[in-house]
Write a structure and sequence with these properties.
mainly alpha; 84% helix
Length: 140
Amino acid sequence: MIIKILFTAFIGFAGGLAVGAGFVAFLTVLGIIPRLTQLTKTMKMIHWYEWAVISGAIAGIAASLRDPIFGMHPFVLIPLGLAGGVYVGMLSAALTEVLNVLPILAKRIGMDGEIVMLLMAIVFGKIFGSIFQWVYFIHH
C-alpha cells in the first residue's frame, strides 16, 4: 500500500516538474516577458511581470488542487476578470509579436497586403465568440 502511494507521489511530482520545466522553457526561449515589457514600455517593472507569472502559476496550482469557491460580489469579480483578460491578451500579443505569426498566416492564406483585415477578422471573431459563449452557455 505504501509503495503505491509513494509511486503515485513520484509520478505526480515528475509530471509537475516536466510541465513546469516546459512552461519556463517556453517563457525563456521565446523571451515573452522581456518582449511584453518592451511593448508596454515598462522595462523597469520586469521583476513585477516575473513575479506575476510566478504568483499566477502558484495560484493556478493551488486552485486546481482545491477547487475553491469565492463568495465575492459580482462587482468585485468584474475588475478581476478584466485584469485576467488583459493579462492573457497582452501575453498572447507578445507571443504573436515574437513569433511573427500574423505575417506568416497572411502569406499562407493569400492575404499578403491585407494584414489589417486579417487582424480585424480575428478581433471580431474573438468578440462574437465571447458574446456567444456568454449568452448561450452562461445565461441559457
